[in-house]
Amino acid sequence: SCLCGSAPCLLCGCCPSTKNSTISRLLFTFFLFLGTLVSIIMIIPGVEKELHKLPGFCEGSGSVLGVQGQLDCGSFLGHKAVYRMGFSMATFFCLFATLMVCVRSSRDPRAALQNGFWFFKFLVLVGITVGAFYIPDGAFTPVWFYFGVVGSFLFILIQLVLLIDFAHSWSQQWLRRAGEGNAKGWYAALCVVTFLLYAASIAALALLYVYYTKPEGCTEGKVLISINLLLCLAVSVVSILPRVQ
């Protein structure tokens, strides 16, 4: 269960001791990072143009991705590859989530599947990924697109809640230290960080306008970015109201 041989075990023996569950979290996170990295590579223009050279990628409806011949395959093939990469990652993690139902501790016999066999898990992930690229296009891409829309919305929502909780805890901790001593220093640090974060937000909004809008068009992009800007301003004002405080 220690990867695929004795050498990794010896290397692991040199590392600081830690819980199996912690190592498992780190390795599963690495798998997620690896899948994300591959997805990013898929939409790099140079790589995306090379994908159509793979057998069946840019042929008729019976091809791997079902790309119609009269369309510019290279212009959107990378996004379909990302859909399949996302499908394989979701399938992989759902598989192990199902296998671990009702497992409460590392003493459970099934916990060995969670905390070991990493080499074979990697092979399973690779196998699912390769198989995902041979799914006939048909209704797969539009259906999985809606899964992605709903999933990404929930993901962003959860991330926003976590970020707000983190920022609030950070602010409260520094304010508590300001009350304990050296108030000017902690207040100055809090103001500097607040200014830097707002500056980064303004820069990000400016880049959104530059890269996702055009002076003569892109009305939908302009509206969405502007709504986001107005909501940020509104939340900033509301958050400092005495009643909210």
Automatic annotation (TrEMBL):
<feature type="transmembrane region" description="Helical">
    <location>
        <begin position="141"/>
        <end position="164"/>
    </location>
</feature>
<feature type="transmembrane region" description="Helical">
    <location>
        <begin position="26"/>
        <end position="47"/>
    </location>
</feature>
<keyword id="KW-0812">Transmembrane</keyword>
<feature type="transmembrane region" description="Helical">
    <location>
        <begin position="115"/>
        <end position="135"/>
    </location>
</feature>
<dbReference type="InterPro" id="IPR005016">
    <property type="entry name" value="TDE1/TMS"/>
</dbReference>
<keyword id="KW-0472">Membrane</keyword>
<dbReference type="Pfam" id="PF03348">
    <property type="entry name" value="Serinc"/>
</dbReference>
<dbReference type="GO" id="GO:0016020">
    <property type="term" value="C:membrane"/>
</dbReference>
<protein>
    <submittedName>
        <fullName>Serine incorporator 2</fullName>
    </submittedName>
</protein>
<feature type="transmembrane region" description="Helical">
    <location>
        <begin position="81"/>
        <end position="103"/>
    </location>
</feature>
<feature type="transmembrane region" description="Helical">
    <location>
        <begin position="185"/>
        <end position="211"/>
    </location>
</feature>
<feature type="transmembrane region" description="Helical">
    <location>
        <begin position="223"/>
        <end position="241"/>
    </location>
</feature>
<comment type="similarity">
    <text>Belongs to the TDE1 family.</text>
</comment>
<keyword id="KW-1133">Transmembrane helix</keyword>
